[in-house]
Amino acid sequence: MTHDTQQPAAQETPAADRPQARRALLDAALEVFTERGYNDASLAEIAARSGIDVGSLFQHYGGKKGLYLELWEDFREEQERRTARMLAEARSRGVEDPITLFVEGARAYLEGAWENRRIGRRLVEEDGPAGFDTLRRQWDRAWVRRNARLLEVDERRRAGRVRVIVLTTIIGGAARELGDCADEAEAQEVMDEVCGILFHLWSTSLAGTDTAV
């Protein structure tokens, strides 16, 4: 006498969770957000371009806002990884000077902004989901704190905090400017100029501190 044993059915990975489908979905979302703006973007159009049905898309991302925030998280995390790699490489070469490390990190960040200029340009537009400006400001404050630690500045002191905010703001502004560069040569020229400005401002601010009475 034999008994049939029923094997449990394999769980199928939802389309929106598969790496290739996820990438196609985010690429389609970026295209539509870039062409239409966030408010006028259609979830149906994003789904059609990605090849993923609207129901699955909505289930996993909750709509346009979820897709927009996913794009932001991907961009932010990649920028942080890129900068961390550059700093690790610089330290492995024996670089210890805080401003030299800071500028190397700034260049890595700007290179990432140039390579990902489509999404970087989209994310600085005012046309975004409700609450995104608050999220972006929170990340900017965290960025300033990381830079303060890198520069060995006590951000609890107003002068030190302002110094780091100014340098960080310059990098952010330059990242936006890179979105309008015509080619890589022009982008590299902007990066070189910004790195020179960062060195100059830091040395000038330290000189002012040393001579203050």
TrEMBL record:
The keyword DNA-binding applies. InterPro entries: Homeodomain-like_sf (IPR009057), HTH-type_TetR-like_transc_reg (IPR050109), HTH_TetR (IPR001647). This is TetR/AcrR family transcriptional regulator. It comes from the Bacteria. Residues 19-79 form the HTH tetR-type domain. Residues 1-21 are annotated as: Disordered. Pfam families: TetR_N. Keywords: DNA-binding. Residues 1-16 have a biased composition (Low complexity). PROSITE patterns: HTH_TETR_2. One of its GO terms (molecular function) is transcription cis-regulatory region binding. Residues 42-61 bind DNA. It comes from Streptomyces luteolifulvus.
